[in-house]
Amino acid sequence: MAIIKILFLAADPSDSVRLRLGQELRDIREKLQLSKYRDSFSLESRESVRTGDITQAIFDVEPQIVHFSGHGTSTGELCFEDILGKTKPVKPDALANLFKLVASQVSCVVLNACYSEVQAKSIAKHISFVVGMNQAIGDKAAIAFAVGFYKALGAGRSVKDAYEFGCVEIQLAGIPEHSTPILLEKEKIIREVDHNKTSLSISTTSFFSERFSKSFPGVRGIQTFSSSSEAITRLTKLLKDPLTLKKGNSEIQPIWWFRGYRNLQIELFEHLEDDIVLINEQELKIKSVTSVNGRDYYQCFVYIETYPMEPSGLYNYEKHEIQNWIEKHGYYSEEFGVYQREFLVKRSEYDDGAATLDGKLIELDWRATELRARYLSPYNLVIAAVDSPINNLSFDNSFEEIMNNILRGNASIEDLNRSVIELPKRSHR
After folding, report:
1. Strand stretches in 236-339, DSSP E
2. Cα–Cα distance between 123 and 184 in angstroms, integer?
3. Considering Cα of 334, then 340, then 341, then 344, what sign does the dihedral take?
4. Among 144, 184, 193, 196, residue whose Cα is nearest residue 31
5. Is the dihedral of CA 43, 48, 54, 56 positive or negative?
6. Peptide linkage before 242 cis (omega within 30 of 0)
7. pLDDT tens digits for 275-326?
8. Spatial contact of 46 and 80, defined as CB atoms under 8 Å apart
9. What DSSP string runs through 99-161?
């Protein structure tokens, strides 16, 4: 039997209620050492885990099973530690994307933390088996589940059986929390997502108008949200899944981003950190979001303005070259690749599929490499339905000019809105 590697990650921030994580680790180790197939398991642990430790631990151990023990928030975030040992929550999408990159290696994830079902559902889109908790769970129940789970694995039972034995172990201990752990399977999650994928039975402008109303309720005319956190909350609602819908036998992305000659369907939205979001490959440091509810439903759109971001450090820039480019094009950006959500590589290396990292020449696994665009100057863009009047070739030049003039302070969103209102209505798809 091949060696099954288990990585135990523990985080118990000093500003949270203390947990018996050391006891849980000792009990797991003991049960595996006493098990029938003890020589088939290898257990390694990392304690006081910070967010930056997670990927390094996975690289070092190369586990098939990842077990997290610690705290979770009621909103589904797992809590790691910052440099001072205080609580640092991590959003479900971030960890899900990490496990997406190691899905060929990791087959099971156990999240022994309160309210971890939300995180488990995100990870289960990529990992075969994920255990989470559908509510708060006490120390005794968490430890009992872990004991039952790993006793069963050590006896050669399947992950499904091990989950059942873990729940029974809680019952045997006389603790009324045996229904708190839940097991999620990737194949079932994928089938559920496919089954629930919305069919587009209305026009894209109607679909966008409905999303707009739920994201900016009560807005009539123009309203700006200058708080980054509030703006991101609204965008998260507007660009929630699904962004790809069924239409007959094909698929369609009804929501697009526009900026003159540069227009593209939106397939991905992610809140990366603090005030930074990802729309497709574009990293955006959100300054404000303005909702524009025009005269009719098909004319509504959302205007986004961003702060400049720090350069990646991959390129050398001359200030006058950047300024000249901004004066000519309105903004300045750089493109690069992100490998395994940690290493930055030049666009040319991304294109070639190989790079030099830490002095070593490596091939970049395309499944673990993402293209990114970062704006080093103020930037703006518009989000609207694909069939918005904005999607008009004859308007592209004027649109680009208005957007650049807004950044320069020579035009306003009101000017943009007046131009959109004058555009002809497109036919529905």
Report:
1. 245-247, 250-252, 255-259, 262-265, 269-273, 276-279, 282-293, 301-307, 333-339
2. 9
3. negative
4. 144
5. negative
6. yes
7. 999 999 999 999 999 999 987 889 999 999 999 999 999 998 888 888 888 8
8. no
9. HHHTTTT--EEEEESTTTHHHHHHHTTTSSEEEEESS---HHHHHHHHHHHHHHHHTT--HHH
